[in-house]
Amino acid sequence: MNRLVNTVLAAFAGLLIAGGAASAHPHVWVTVQSQIVYAPDGTISGVRHAWTFDDMFSTFATQGLASKQKGVFTREELQPLAEVNVSSLKEYDFFNHAKADGRRTPLPFLEPKDYHLEHKDQLLTLHFLLPLKTPVKAKSLDLEIFDPAYFVDFSFAEKDPVSLIGAPAQCKLTVARAGEAAAPNVQRLPDAMANQPDTLNFGQQFASKIMVRCP
User: Which terminus of the chain has fewer CB atoms gathered within 10 Å of its CB, N or C?
Assistant: First the structure.
């Protein structure tokens, strides 16, 4: 792999590791489609995500990547980029914050499975399955997707944002979108304020939320 590709991979990882850099406005926008996955015994086993990155970031991330057809990238050609992406996000639990049955302790996740990047209509979409460390049988699940530093904005897709896979028939799904859409290039707080300790979790108020309730 040439030096240019290595540089792009490193930059891709660095931009997404948002937890270490305080910012009050997003620099990367991600459109989210998610599936809550249930095992045959009724336990929640994990979350399957499809994250589509904004056009500017998708263009930046693919700059210099080798491909057989100019401007078109196969899954195989994008696999090194996908690997850097998922491995770099371990420390941040992939911006997923899940709790079951009202408990305060978040549910821990394992490393992702079945991950790959798709390039379609000039946009990159990261597909991955995020397994729970221990599958849980819960009457309620609350999952928030957000970057505390608000460097990355996560917003649900307009169509089919979330679904339940293999869930008991009685389970009900509710999706709560952020109160205010984070339009590109809109700054929410001055950068000086973003460096204050009480704003380091600023992004939570823009969280995309999934709520499952089962009798």
Answer: C
Quickly list H helices, the chain: 3-16, 55-62, 75-88, 191-194
Question: How open is the CA angle 67-113-107, to the nearest 5 degrees?
Answer: 135
Task: Choose the most confident range, by mean pLDDT, from 17-26, 87-96, 108-117, 200-209.
Answer: 108-117
Is the pLDDT at 151 greater than 80, yes or no? yes
Identify the structural domains of the chain with CATH numbers, from first to last. Answer: 3-183+200-213 (2.70.170)
Q: What is the pTM of this model?
A: 0.81
Residue 58: its H or E element: helix 55-62
Q: How far apart (Å, rounded) are the C-alpha atoms in residues 18 and 150? A: 8
Phi, psi of 11 (to 5 degrees): -65, -40
Confidence label for 126 from pLDDT (cuts 50, 70 and 90) = very high
Q: Is residue 14 over pLDDT 90?
A: no
Q: Which residue has the tokens 């999934």?
A: 210
Res 188: pLDDT: 42
- Name the 3-class secondary structure at 84: helix
Answer for the pair 68, 196: CB distance below 8 angstroms, yes or no.
no
Residues 185, 30: Cα–Cα separation, whole Å: 14
How far does CA 75 lie from the centroid of its chain? 19
